[in-house]
């Protein structure tokens, strides 16, 4: 069985040369560009064998033993503590499996992976984009760079745009360019909520294009669209599939510190693919690469509506934690919420933990019945966010899951216990960026309630002020 | 050392105890081991249910049924089946992260020694259907028995393959016994399984054993 590629360094690996073109009308065209386990392939044994013999699918080694230890061919994991063995009765021996990507289904060393040929004639669509809005100067600048990167191929571009700059819209010309060439495009993001939020907007902008959204419990399971929206986790199931890979929220957890997700997103793209990264808060790693001119970047300091970003105000609230333990909130925060609720705006209230989110909701519920809380494990998460957007709630108490990628037209943002470790600089900048996102209501109040200023708060505040200054100059 | 569940590095505590006593192998971090709730005082002496005073209602009902009265001496469980346990079991059993069984080993052995060391029972596994076994690659009850250091005694075969957890309590109670006895039990038997939910599975097996001359049947499950 052939090895898929070398892992010495995580880079775009060569594609096995023997793979054949999958005909346009083929019933199994969904296998194009996929890397799947046997269980994930709904074909009979003889059908699959026929594909392998025909050169449209290739069997590859799933777990490879190198001198330094094991390497998982699906997720790139090479940490020895993330491998384990189990007595496998089918092969009468201890079989090694990868623990890192087990959430996507277990891969045992005795089971091969199946690599579907990425060669498939995607249609070249002459006029794919139906969006009729206009881009601002800043957006146009970024859009032009994106188009250039995509036309060139085999290159990278970081789009560093402030929260509310209109990142999605500035992607449209680039995506349209790729589709005109008959290319396959993936927009990946670490956050499920972002995938859900983007899907309807893209379907509206590209009505003639096959579009699917892939995430943990999405309905589109096949993943055979020309334009795919996906969480970065789902990319474990793709290899060499995309001509254009756009990674939104590149600095977000868990992508930014998970080498295996970065590996998967690289492997999912063709060797000569164009990579476009989007972020409002690049990490030190990216900043360093920009500075050394290793990573081309474009910077947009202005929001699409031209108004500055709301600058967060820091409010000392020394008894906050104590009050919460006694199931109450400090008086001045309650007063602030009361005066806020007299106006027409909605309120996003961020808490550091799920427990606090529940607690704060309980405290406020008697006074403000139109309140709910949401967190990552909440089964009604999607529904509640949608309901809040439709103004069914006045207050939404949330953990950091809503720190980025979501747009509510008219909200103020309060952060309780902003000194907590989960609120790092990037998180706070993103959270502040939820306010004042619409043309009609471009301002908003952002309060960080804390029991002592942290560097993260000060850095976030400073970063926002700096971007506003740059935005004014441009 | 890394925690088996969350894979975070475990920082060992340093004290005179660590210095002077032989070291136990630690494979769980403090956070994860605190989230797995041990059952130290069972409320119901029959089934190990925690939130009961005396024999619980379910067990009373079992003892009134003609078929299953008196077939199971008692069930003992190691942990409460809380939200966290549910997640870990899902990863272990359904995702197939086999090695997680080692996270339960210490507590499992302790519980076994407290309750069953002196009963002289054959340790018997719950058979899986052929199809389920192929999918999963291992039998969870065999895996637990291996952690106790025994060889499982095979007394049973399974007839059909429908998943128990897909049925409600009533359906489970009314269902035909899916197992067939293939051996001749002469000694006490200890049935080992991962989860005691309604107690139907162990009672199916226990009733077969009792009918065929087994003196007494116990069960040991990881979760309750």
TrEMBL record, chain A:
Keywords: ATP-binding, DNA-binding, Helicase, Hydrolase, Nucleotide-binding. Residues 148-300 form the Helicase ATP-binding domain. It holds the Pfam family ResIII. InterPro entries: Helicase/UvrB_N (IPR006935), Helicase_ATP-bd (IPR014001), Helicase_C-like (IPR001650), P-loop_NTPase (IPR027417). GO terms for molecular function: helicase activity. Gene3D superfamilies: P-loop containing nucleotide triphosphate hydrolases (3.40.50.300). Residues 332-474 form the Helicase C-terminal domain. It comes from the Bacteria. SUPFAM superfamilies: P-loop containing nucleoside triphosphate hydrolases. This is DEAD/DEAH box helicase. It comes from Halobacillus amylolyticus.
From TrEMBL, chain B:
CDD domains: PRTases_typeI. This is ComF family protein. Belongs to the ComF/GntX family.
């Amino acid at each position: 069985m052939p090895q898929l590629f070398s892992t010495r360094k995580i880079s775009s690996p060569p594609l096995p040369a023997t793979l054949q073109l999958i005909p346009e009308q083929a019933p199994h065209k969904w296998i194009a560009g996929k890397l799947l386990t046997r269980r994930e392939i709904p074909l009979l044994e003889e059908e699959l064998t026929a594909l392998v013999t025909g050169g449209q699918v290739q069997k590859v080694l799933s777990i490879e033993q190198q001198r330094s230890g094991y390497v998982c061919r699906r997720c790139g994991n090479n940490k020895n503590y993330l491998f384990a063995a189990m007595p496998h009765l089918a092969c009468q021996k201890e079989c090694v499996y990868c623990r890192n990507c087990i959430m996507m289904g277990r891969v045992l060393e005795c089971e091969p992976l199946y690599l579907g040929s990425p060669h498939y004639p995607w249609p070249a669509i002459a006029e794919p984009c139906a969006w009729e809005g206009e881009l601002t100067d800043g957006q146009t600048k970024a859009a032009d760079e994106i188009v250039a990167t995509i036309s060139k191929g085999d290159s990278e571009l970081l789009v560093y745009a402030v929260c509310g700059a209109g990142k999605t819209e500035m992607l449209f010309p680039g995506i349209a360019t790729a589709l005109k060439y008959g290319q396959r495009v993936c927009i990946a993001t670490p956050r499920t909520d972002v995938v859900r939020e983007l899907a309807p907007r893209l379907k509206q902008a590209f009505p003639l294009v096959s579009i699917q959204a892939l995430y943990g419990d999405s309905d589109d399971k096949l993943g055979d669209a020309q334009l795919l929206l996906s969480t970065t986790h789902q990319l474990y199931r793709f290899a060499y599939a995309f001509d254009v890979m756009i990674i939104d929220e590149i600095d977000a957890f868990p992508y930014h510190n998970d080498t295996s997700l970065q590996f998967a997103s690289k492997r999912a793209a063709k060797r000569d693919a164009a990579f476009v990264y989007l972020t409002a808060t690049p990490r030190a790693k990216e900043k360093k690469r920009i500075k050394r001119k290793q990573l081309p970047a474009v910077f947009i300091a202005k929001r699409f509506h031209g108004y500055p970003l709301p600058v967060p105000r820091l409010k000392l609230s020394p008894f906050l934690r104590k009050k919460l333990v006694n199931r109450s909130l400090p008086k001045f925060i309650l007063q602030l919420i009361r005066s806020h609720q007299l106006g027409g705006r909605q309120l996003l209230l961020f808490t550091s933990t799920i427990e606090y989110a529940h607690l704060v909701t309980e405290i406020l519920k008697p006074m403000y019945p139109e309140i709910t809380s949401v967190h990552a494990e909440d089964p009604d998460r999607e529904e509640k966010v949608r309901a809040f957007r439709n103004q069914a709630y006045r207050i939404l108490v949330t953990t950091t899951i809503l720190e980025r990628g979501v747009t509510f037209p008219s909200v103020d943002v309060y952060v309780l216990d902003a000194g907590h470790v989960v609120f790092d600089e990037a998180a706070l900048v993103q959270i502040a960026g939820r306010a004042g996102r619409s043309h009609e209501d471009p301002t908003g109040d952002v309060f960080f309630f804390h029991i002592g200023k942290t560097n993260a708060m000060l850095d976030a505040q400073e970063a926002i002020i700096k971007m506003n200054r740059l935005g004014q100059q441009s | 050392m890394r925690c088996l569940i969350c894979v975070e590095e475990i920082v060992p505590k340093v004290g005179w105890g660590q210095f002077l006593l032989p070291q136990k192998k630690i494979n769980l971090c403090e956070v994860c081991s605190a989230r797995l709730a041990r059952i130290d005082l069972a409320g119901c002496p029959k089934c190990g249910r925690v939130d009961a005073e005396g024999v619980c209602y379910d067990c009373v009902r079992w003892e009134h049924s003609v078929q299953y009265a008196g077939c199971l001496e008692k069930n003992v469980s190691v942990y409460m089946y809380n939200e966290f346990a549910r997640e870990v079991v899902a990863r272990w059993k359904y995702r197939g992260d086999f090695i997680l069984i080692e996270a339960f080993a210490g507590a499992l052995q302790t519980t076994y020694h407290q309750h069953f060391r002196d009963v002289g029972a054959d340790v018997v596994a719950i058979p899986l259907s052929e199809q389920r076994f192929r999918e999963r690659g291992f039998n969870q009850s065999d895996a637990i028995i291996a952690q106790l250091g025994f060889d499982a005694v095979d007394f049973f075969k399974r007839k059909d393959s429908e998943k128990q957890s897909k049925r409600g309590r009533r359906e489970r109670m009314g269902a035909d016994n899916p197992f067939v006895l293939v051996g001749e039990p002469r000694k006490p038997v200890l049935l080992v399984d991962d989860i005691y939910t309604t107690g139907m599975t162990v009672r199916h097996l226990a009733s077969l054993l009792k009918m065929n001359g087994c003196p007494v049947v116990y069960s040991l499950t990881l979760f309750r």
